[in-house]
Amino acid sequence: MVGETMSSGTREGWAPKRFPEDRAAAEALNDWVAAGNPQFDGEDLDFRGSDLSGGDFSASRFTGANLTGVSAERATFYRADFSSTDLSGADLRGADLVKAEFDETLLRSARFDGADMGSATLYAVDAREGVFRGARLSGTTFLESDLRGADLSFAVLSEAVLQVTISEATVLNGVTGTCFGPVVLELSGSLKQLDGPALQEWFFHHGGTVEVLAARGRKK
After folding, report:
1. φ, ψ for residue 30, nearest 5 deg
2. Exposed, middle or buried, 23 (CB in 10 Å: 0-12/13-18/19+)?
């Protein structure tokens, strides 16, 4: 019966707190837990309604999947692939997302409070209203991504690439560390590019202490 099988010792008896409402996704997840395989293939499956908190999904594939509103607190997604996945409203607080891939992923209103996103790649993601409070962004790469209205308060940056669009509503209070620009600022209906000292000053005036680094290969 779906939802009753426990895993082998590879994940120390872990099982989802709540299985997906979709039967195909529930059966795939249940079979994976029972087999104890190291990677899970969740491509194109619908995981809505599930609670995957604490699970180890290292190197797993969720490409094209629907994880809208899914709970996955403190889960491990090391090197997981979330390309073209819908994670809108998902709860990944405290998750291990080191080297995860988010290409053309929907992250609207998703929560990454305290998550480790070191060396993760986020290309063309829609993270409007996303919450990254206290997230660790060491070597994290945001390219052509939308962070308008996102909350980056107290996030810790370390040579993070922030080639993103932000707005006055993007929360930067307490953010610290180093990053590369440029950032596109949407302000009063117009767009303005900020980089170097101008971007550094923007952080400062919004409660952050971030050193904006010169792009490698050119002087600041």
Report:
1. -60, -45
2. exposed
User: Mind giving me the DSSP string for 30-75?
Assistant: HHHHHHT-S--B-TT-B-TT-B-TT-B-TT-B-TT-B-TT-B-TT-
State residue 36's pLDDT score: 85
Q: How far apart are the C-alpha atoms of 171 and 155, rounded to whole Å?
A: 10
pLDDT at residue 220 in the model = 42
Give kind and range of the element (H or E) at residue 142: strand 141-146
How much is the pLDDT for 219? 45
- Per residue in 135-148, pLDDT tens? 999 999 999 999 99
Structure tokens given for 181: 């620009």
Q: Which residues of the chain have pLDDT under 50?
A: 1-10, 217-220
pLDDT of the residue at 189: 84
Q: Is 130 exposed, middle or buried (0-12, 13-18, 19+ CB in 10 A)?
A: buried
**Helices marked H in 72-215:** 196-205
Q: What are the φ and ψ backbone dihedral angles of 157, each rounded to 5 degrees?
A: -100, 145
The answer for residues whose C-beta is within 8 angstroms of residue 75's C-beta and 6 or more apart is 52, 53, 54, 55, 56, 57, 92, 95, 96
Number of H-type helices and E-type strands within the chain: 2, 9
